[in-house]
From TrEMBL, chain A:
It comes from Sulfitobacter undariae. GO terms for biological process: tetrahydrofolate metabolic process. Pfam families: SoxD. It comes from the Bacteria. Coiled coil: none annotated. This is Sarcosine oxidase subunit delta.
UniProtKB/TrEMBL annotation, chain B:
It comes from the Bacteria. Its EC number is 1.5.3.1. InterPro entries: SoxG, TrmE/GcvT-like. Keywords: Oxidoreductase. GO terms for molecular function: sarcosine oxidase activity. The keyword Oxidoreductase applies. This is Sarcosine oxidase subunit gamma.
Length: 107, 191
């Protein structure tokens, strides 16, 4: 079971108070996109065994969206961060580098 | 005007390890907006009759009160009859600002859990650390109770107030009553 801290309201709770909404930081291709871009946007997901960045929502709490970095194999939560961003924060990436050397090659 | 009736007509469960009671019709106004904005703060304090609560806190005094629901949402509590007037006043004061106030009194149900085992009863149903050290008087928490969303606060020691949607009032009452059935003490929070 995941223990999640919501960066919006500050509550730390187990995962049943939250809801996962899939991979984060996906480029949203729109009207003028090619078929390949549209396919990538709609269907292509990394599904890694290891470090994964996800969108979550504090479903039964403050109701806000946020991002979470976790390990899909060990269920370790590396951290949560604001939804108002296009990429994970540098300090969180550094922490993951230290804990999972070489994860970027596998991601 | 039609007579206002609460979801469960003040149902209560008295024969368990804690007393479960529906609190009847309670006035509730949802206020959303920038909580750091002075006009919104002033209007909210005037309507609720209490100071602005800190994050994850609830302030109450008599029938009035105010709970911190999320970074941009407050729940104002008042007497059921006063909700309309307070809402009109809020909307007038905030007409020029980006804020939203709605009377949700009839969309909600409110319960009281009373007794020395109140913490234990609630802890069976919500994924929240309810130990006396972690959950103190005035703390407010939006979470789930069994399968439905709910919010509660520790009104005073041994007394929790629970707010849920009216549509699930019977479910919440039943599940609280089951969690409070006699002989079901867990005892982990006993002082």
């Amino acid at each position: 079971m995941l223990i999640v801290s919501c960066p919006c309201c500050g509550v730390t709770a187990e995962e049943t108070e939250f809801h996962a909404h899939g991979e984060a930081h996906i480029t949203r291709h729109a009207m003028d996109a090619s078929d390949e871009q549209m396919e990538t946007y709609l269907f292509m997901r990394k599904n890694p065994k290891g470090v994964h960045f996800e969108r979550w929502r504090h479903q039964n709490g403050c109701g806000k969206w946020f991002h979470m970095a976790r390990d899909t194999a060990t269920l370790e939560v590396f951290g949560t961060y604001s939804a108002q961003t296009l990429a994970p924060p540098e300090d969180l990436l550094a922490e993951i580098d230290a804990k999972r050397p070489g994860w970027r090659d596998r991601a | 005007m039609s007579e206002a009736i609460s979801a469960l007509k003040n149902a209560s469960f008295e024969t368990g390890i804690a007393q479960i009671r529906e609190m009847g019709a309670v006035g509730m106004i949802t206020l959303r907006g920038d909580l750091s904005a002075k006009p919104l703060q002033k209007a909210a304090v005037a309507a609720a009759g209490v100071n602005l609560p800190d994050p994850r806190q609830c302030q109450t005094q008599g029938q009035g009160g105010m709970a911190w629901m999320s970074p941009d949402e407050l729940l104002i509590l008042c007497a059921y009859e006063d909700a309309h007037a307070k809402l009109a006043d809020l909307q007038e004061k905030l007409a020029k600002y980006h804020a939203l106030a709605v009377n949700v009194s009839d969309a909600r149900a409110m319960f009281e859990i009373r007794g020395p085992h109140a913490r234990g009863v609630l802890a069976k149903l919500a994924p929240v650390d309810l130990s006396p050290a972690a959950f103190t008087t005035g703390m407010f928490r939006r979470t789930r109770i069994a399968q439905v969303p709910a919010a509660f606060w520790l009104h005073k020691e041994d007394v929790f107030h629970v707010v849920c949607f009216r549509s699930v009032a019977q479910y919440v009452f039943d599940v609280l009553s089951i969690a409070a059935q006699s002989g079901s003490e867990v005892g982990v929070f006993q002082r």
